[in-house]
Every structure is written in structure tokens, then in C-alpha cells.
Amino acid sequence: MALLRPLLLDNVPSIQQSAALALGRLANYSDELAEAVVSNEILPQLVYSLSEQNRFYKKAAAYVLRSVAKHSPHLAKAVVNSGALDALVNCLEEFDPSVKEAAALALSCIAKHNHELAQAVVDAGAVGLLVLCVQEPELTLKRISATALGEIAKHTEELAQAVVDQGAVPYLAALISHPDAQLKRYVCQCLAQIAKHTVDLAEVVVEAEIFPRILNCLKDMDVQVRKNAATCIREIAKQTTELAKLIVHSGGAAATVDYISESKGNARLPGIMTLGYISAFDDSLAMAVIVSKGIAPLKDALINEPEDHLKAAAAWSLGQIGRHSPDHAKFLAEADVPSRLLAVYMLPESSKDLKDKSKKSLKNIIQMCTHLPALEPLLQLAPNNILTYVCAQFAKVLPSNLEAKRTFVQSGGF
Q: Where do runs of H (alpha helix) occur along 250-397?
């Protein structure tokens, strides 16, 4: 480090660039080496050179700043304290696209850590220039700028609003149909980071007419595009009944059901939760999920996914579908969902969260279920705390239903 530092001031430009590149590669390797770059007071020298030198050196200097900042909030703060933000923001106005890319990537690595650092990036005036970069023809620059905007927007409502106020959403939304998979990943992710905070921000994203185009991303060849699109839909679905209805009317429920059916593992999670959020709002939306054949893939996730958090999400979503009316509960009962929920609840190795969600969903469905044949198996299998709800349903339905009484006695339930 001590030997490389004087070379940054060498008379020969190619030596300066090579020294910067060497420092960048060292800093990139580990946080200890990045810490050494900071402690050797190399950053102020690089920042000074960013405003003075040629485009090749600017790229190398921005690379060093990015390589230091990416490791931890502490190192990113050191980059900010060295005065790098203004210099990097100025680089976003350079003519050369590769300099803009290097600067945008460095800003992204600073903003990703926490809201104070992201706020510092916003205060330096980066957002408006990043939105301009999204509109540039260079593909790599579009990708990096979309990533950086997402890293800023993800922290707080105010930061997401700052991105919206600079007019980013329409330009990002237009790129949902872009042929490049990587760009679509970052665009869907960025829109999700904006939509997740509040109803107003989700409405801004929806007003950019992402539906039904984003549903095509659920069928994309790229796994990450599909997952990020499903995450964006989930962040919108959770906000209000109106937004959930808009998703359903655009064909979103059926598209999400297909997405869960065709996915495996963690990629399923946003789709599973979307169906739960949609179903939670009211009985007509829950029925739309049932009509879209949503029960089968949720049941499949409950039974076949190895990870408990996925099973728990599926259990929760099934409970949201079944809690509205006897009709909803009957569809779940006929699909043998209650006994599956009970089996997961009874498994000793199930996590506490999974047991809790299974129990709550089972209780929701049982308390609505008047289709008694589906509840009979639970009489033999359920522990006392669940059996209470099962018996209560029999006590509610049997007195007024002669046919149910007869069936109950003949089947051995009595």
C-alpha cells in the first residue's frame, strides 16, 4: 500500500491508472485490505484525482472507491467522509458511458448499507442523474443505474419517495418488456423496493401501467426475473383491497398460481404470499384464488417443500383463503387441507412458527367448515386443543341437519 500510494501521483498516466487498479483489486479482495486502503489515507488522493484526471483514471479511481465501500457500512462511511460523493456524482455527467457506469456502481455500493448512507447519496444529487442514466442507450449503464436506484429506495419511504420525485418510475416501468434478462431483474427489483413502503408508492408503480406486462415476466426464461417480478406483485398485493382487485382483474391470480406450480424452493415464496395477501382482503378475492386453482400448489408447498418457512407461508395463505365462509372452507376441506395442516402441526420437527401458523389456519378453516365428512378424520387424530374446535363445529351443525346426523352415525364418527 505504502509503495502504491506515491504511484498515484506519478508523471506517467498509465502508471497512475495501474496503481489505482492494483489498489482496487486489493481492496476488493477483503475488508482487511480495504481497511488498509483507508488507513493509508489513499481515499482523499483518489477523490482529488477524480475531478482532475482523464477518463481511464476516473474509472480506476471509482473502482477503488466501490471496492472499499462494498464491504461494510463503516468502510462506506469512510468513502463518504473522504468527500467522494460529489466527485462520483460529477462523474455521472461525464460523456464516457464507462465512467458513468463506474460511478453509478460505486454509489450503489455506498447506498446499499443503510438509510444514512443512502440519504447522503440522495443529498449529493445522485438520483436525478441516475434516472437520466437509466434512459441512456448503453445496456450496462441501464442495469447499474436501476440497481443503484433500488439500493436507495429499499431503506425508507422517504428515500423511495426521493426516487419517485425524480420521475424514475415511468422509465423503469417501460423497461419491464426489455429483452435483456439482467435488466429486467434489476427493474422488477427496484419497482418492488419502491412499492413495498406505502399504498401511495405502490399506486405510483401501478399507475405506470406495469399490469399486465409484469405478468409476462412470471413466464420469463430467467429464474431471477420470475422471482423479482413475483416479489414486485407481492409488494403491491399486500397494500389495499383495490390494488389486490386490480391484480386479480389483470389475470394476476391465475398467473401467480402458474408461477408457484412451475417453481420450486425459495422462488415460490413471493407467489405463495401474494395469494395469501389477495385472499386476506375479502371473500370475493379469496374465491378468485380458489377459482384460479390456487389451493393445489399451496397444498403442494405445504407437503413437499423441505424448508419450514415455505411450509409456514403456505399454511398462512391457506388459512387466509378458508377463513371467509363455509363455501371457502368446503373447497379446502374437499382438497384434504385440514388433515395436511394437522399433520404439519403434529410433526415434532416442525418449527414454532410453522406450528403456530398451521394451528391458526386450521382453526380458521374448522370454524368456518360445515362440511362435516371432511372434519371426521380429525376426531381421531387431533390433539385436545384442536379437537375443541372440531367438536364445536359438530355441535353447531348436527342439531339442525338431519342428513348430517344420519351420516355422522353411519360413518362411525359418533
A: 252-262, 269-281, 283-291, 295-304, 308-322, 326-334, 337-346, 352-368, 372-381, 384-397
Give the tens place of pLDDT for each residue, 110-158.
999 999 999 999 999 999 999 999 999 999 999 999 999 999 999 999 9
∠ CA 85-91-93, rounded to 5°: 120
DSSP character string of 372-390: HHHHHHHHHH--HHHHHHH
Whether the model pTM is above 0.70: yes
| CA–CA dist 177, 220 (Å, integer) | 10
Q: Are 313 and 359 in contact (CB under 8 A)?
A: no
Joined together, the cell numbers standing for residue 239 give: 397494500
Q: How far apart are CA 76 and CA 120, in angstroms?
A: 11
Name residues whose C-beta falls within 8 Å of residue 284's C-beta, 6 or more positions apart in sequence: none
Residues 6+ apart with CB under 8 A from 195: 201, 202, 205, 206, 232, 235, 236, 239
Q: How confident is the model at residue 244 (pLDDT cuts 50, 70, 90)?
A: very high
